[in-house]
Amino acid sequence: MTTTDDQTPELTEEHIERLKENMGKVEELSKRLVEVMAGKTPHTPALDGPNQELFAKAATAYWADVMQNPSKLLEQQIEYWGKSVLNFAEAQKAMTSGESEEPDAPVKDKRFSNPMWDTNPYFRLIRQQYQTNADAIAQAVASVDDLDTKDKQRLRYFSQQIIDMMAPTNFLATNPDALEKAVETEGQSLIQGLENLVSDLEANDGEMVVRLADESAFEIGGNIATTPGDVVYRNRMMELIQYKPVTETVHETPIVLFPPWINKFYILDLKAQNSLIKWVTEQGYTLFVVSWVNADSSHADIGMEDYIQEGFLTAIEEAKKICKVKQVNAVGYCIAGTTLSLTLSLMKQRGDKSVKSATFFTTLTDFGEQGEFTPFLQNDFVDGIEDQVSKDGVLKAWIIGRTMSFLRSRDLIYTPAIRSYMMGETPPAFDLLYWNGDGANLPGKMAIQYLRGLCQGNGFVTDGFELLGQKLHIKDVDVPLMAITCETDHIAAWKDCYRGVQQMGSKSKSFVVSESGHIAGIVNPPSKKKYGHYTNPDLKADAETWLKEADFHEGSWWPMWEAWLKKRSGKQVPARDTGDSDHPRLCPAPGTYVLVKANR
């Protein structure tokens, strides 16, 4: 293939023949595609979208409004027709004159960054009409009034998902980047893209789960999760890792850190430069971290009570024995922070004072507002999850991962899919995305308890959450605490976290809002000097007032937290080696449970 002076590829007969030859390879890959889809294990349809009742209610409300105010529909339709005709007229003019229209104002949507979306009449018309259609749908949804708040929020969310799904960039014939690459590579990009698609489907039992990272680039315990330590205790729920000291002395009170079991713990130990685990040991602390089991069908009957009894309480007790102390400082991240709150309420009622202080990372305890998860926490979806869990025994990782990804579908679904399946590119060697794809299954009983009792019922802050013979309540959380939240967190919105902390019974509370989101706001080492944080000791005001009156601090919150923790960590004692005579070293960190991949 040669290139002319204007950089337009000149297609020779030889090039066309190679293109046809490559397209012939599609047949073989198509057979594999048919085979994997034929063998796909079906799942509950309710997991794929809301039931028809939502759209029926929306349509009824919309048409009822139209009957009362017909001019409203006419105004919307006339505006839509006018824009559509104008789009077509501009395209016709450009085609007949051979001259491109002046580019529109710069489009902020990075999906349309290719110059052809402005200069080529065909692609320009497609882009303009897509944007016109998207605006019309959004306008129609916004005009539906006779729906309750949650249904309105769900309608907005799912209509936006339809808009994003129908973007022209998601289809080969209307994606100039993919078409250009197909011609440039003589069709090889499409062959590789189809290979990527088939491979992803084969790896996930026919489910469409886009691989986000090059899995061959990482080895757990090899080039990620490498902080030295040993597994010093193991049961059916977890492995307890004690990390090796790097200072001659350590604080007497150890730290026991509980990561979420929805994902693997090594998000806190991806690499040395941003490892919270490594950093904590460097500050002179004895650190224990729980690595949760990746559930399979044999764990179907494990509930929240088992996580508390065999996870939280056991880890705390074993850490106390190894360090020969009466108290520990506990840390809980996300759902593990929620469960740490439940554990602290239980310990209060039992008179157990083993926890000296608690730190919560992005932790929800009051689910009165469900934020961006509202579309997925209504009965139609939860009923579907309960039905699927009854068949599988677990809430499978791909269901959780897909739900999380749809909260950021452009970045975590469509863009990676385009690059992999249409452009034929290998996913990037990005450790964070590798971790994101290394999910974990949840035990069936625990998942339903969490969804029904906490997310939907909000029992912990209302009438109490019944567990282990006690009625657990947020007001019983009375140890000194610090809560770290993240400003743009779409999983645990900081304002919702704040509302929960306000209701805790502790007399000593510190609340922090870090810049950035659920992961980057937590994994924010001081060395990067990237994201700052807000503090305000007055927790009586509403969230908006708290932030307005808060002080902003440059850089990571880690040193501020460590200064707070130091005051609650006792005197210096000789550094402790891992384990003891009653806790032999079972294997080196990161252990064995973390290596188990989720069943598809």
End-to-end CA span: 44 Å
| Contiguous helical run count | 20
- The CATH class of the domain at 229-369 and 451-595, by name, is Alpha Beta
Q: Structural class, judged by helices and strands?
A: alpha/beta
* Major sheet attributes: 11 strands, mixed
Mean pLDDT level: 87
- What is the number of strand segments? 19
In the sheet with the most strands, the strands line up as 17-16-15-14-9-8-6-7-4-3-19
Could you name the ranges where pLDDT drops below 50 across 5 or more consecutive residues?
Answer: 1-8
Q: What is the CATH topology descriptor of the domain at 229-369 and 451-595?
A: Rossmann fold
Rg, rounded, reads: 27 Å
CATH architecture of the domain at 229-369 and 451-595: 3-Layer(aba) Sandwich
CATH H-level name of the domain at 229-369 and 451-595... which superfamily?
Alpha/Beta hydrolase fold, catalytic domain
Into which percent range does the helicity of residues fall? 40-55%
Described by the principal axes of the CA atoms, the overall outline is: globular
Beta-strand content: 5-15%
Secondary-structure blueprint of this entry?
Blueprint: E1 2-3, E2 9-10, H1 13-24, H2 26-38, H3 52-68, H4 70-97, H5 116-119, H6 121-142, H7 149-165, H8 176-184, H9 188-203, E3 229-234, E4 238-243, E5 249-251, E6 255-258, H10 276-282, E7 287-292, H11 304-323, E8 328-333, H12 335-350, E9 355-361, H13 379-392, E10 394-395, H14 397-406, H15 409-422, H16 431-437, E11 442-443, H17 444-456, E12 465-467, E13 470-472, E14 481-486, H18 494-503, E15 509-514, E16 533-535, H19 543-548, E17 551-553, H20 558-566, E18 572-574, E19 587-588
Parallel strand pairs: 6-7, 6-8, 8-9, 9-14, 14-15
Antiparallel strand pairs: 1-2, 3-4, 3-19, 4-7, 5-18, 10-11, 12-13, 15-16, 16-17
Helix pairs in contact: 2-9, 3-4, 4-6, 6-7, 9-15, 11-12, 13-17
